[in-house]
Specification:
mainly alpha; two-stranded antiparallel ribbon
Length: 321
């Protein structure tokens, strides 16, 4: 991560102060939960993308800090709500909020993060940012609804999968770049260009996440085959189902008609995906999205910010967790 953040180390430190100071309360329980969230926050890839894209487009200013804070608050809120929807006990190697404090408190904390993001944007007179973020959140919710619908019916096809991940994951990456463009008063054509860059980054991020579902939990910090257990049709599984015989397809779909809990069934599905080139074909598609992102990035002049976005793309596609 050091190569990625090198041009924005000072800005990230300032962002952390602003972000952490976004919360104040006399309620001990609120402080306890928010401190837990801060202590177990991730790499903050989305704020990093906001800062790097702003640098790429001309410069980092006060609006950039508002954008980075807003997007991280929205991201954390959606993660908390996602864990409630999925009835998840863990996020990476840490307990999920709903696992420690139950669903009601988790939903309320997610609501608070959303409201705080709105408040910050309005306070700084950056209402236009709310339009971009509202569009992203709307797409994220619709992506989750589409996924739930298709998972229940086991009718998901590859084209629908791409639409779902564009909505539920890539739209927020696109929003990061859109907000960076707005903070620099960039024209609509260039704003669309960086938005597309964010979408390609986000698509690659989600496909890599799908691939990591087949890795050992010791490496990833995630529960292995969690998508399979939750009956989510990820890309390697979809591609394997395209490559297999009709009899194999029927057997796999029959297993997925109910929550997959038996270790033998999980192992069988993982072996099936690997045997039918689901992993290899998904890796090829991951490379395609990476190359698409690089083509867009190469439209911009050389700079340390451009180099760092390149490193970020490498990190997204090569990470092991």
């Amino acid at each position: 991560m050091n190569k990625i953040t090198k041009p924005i180390i000072k800005e990230l430190k300032e962002f952390e102060k602003i972000y952490n100071n976004s919360f104040s309360s006399d309620t001990k329980l609120f402080l306890k939960i928010s401190n837990y969230i801060f202590a177990h926050s991730g790499k903050k890839l989305r704020p990093i993308l906001v800062f790097l894209t702003s640098g790429l487009l001309g410069g980092i200013n006060k609006k950039t800090y508002v954008a980075a804070t807003l997007v991280e608050l929205l991201h954390v809120a959606t993660l908390i709500h996602d864990d409630v929807v999925d009835d998840a006990n863990f996020r990476r190697k840490n307990f999920a909020i709903n696992s420690l404090w139950k669903n009601k408190l988790a939903v309320l904390m997610g609501d608070f993060f959303l409201a705080q993001g709105l408040k910050i944007a309005l306070k700084e007179n950056t209402e236009q940012m709310l339009l971009y973020t509202s569009n992203a959140v709307q797409k994220m919710a619709m992506g989750e609804i589409m996924q739930l619908e298709k998972s229940r019916k086991l009718t998901l096809i590859e084209e629908e999968y791409y639409k779902i991940i564009e909505y539920k994951t890539a739209s927020l990456f696109g929003c990061c770049c859109e907000l960076a463009a707005f903070s620099n008063n960039i024209n609509s054509h260039k704003k669309k260009t960086v938005y597309d860059l964010g979408i390609k980054l986000g698509m690659a991020f989600q496909i890599k996440d799908d691939l990591l579902d087949y890795n050992s939990s010791k490496l990833t910090g995630k529960v292995q085959a969690n998508d399979i257990k939750e009956r989510k049709m990820n890309l390697p599984l979809l591609l394997a189902l395209k490559n297999c015989s009709n009899n194999e397809k029927i057997k796999i779909l029959n297993l997925l008609h109910h929550p997959v809990k038996k270790k033998a069934d999980i192992s069988y599905i993982i072996s099936f995906v690997k045997k039918n080139n689901g992993i290899r074909n998904a890796e090829e598609i991951l490379d395609m999205f990476k190359n698409d992102a690089l083509k867009i990035l190469n439209k911009f002049p050389e700079s340390r910010y451009k180099n760092s976005i390149n490193y970020l793309l490498d990190f997204i596609t090569q990470r092991n967790k």
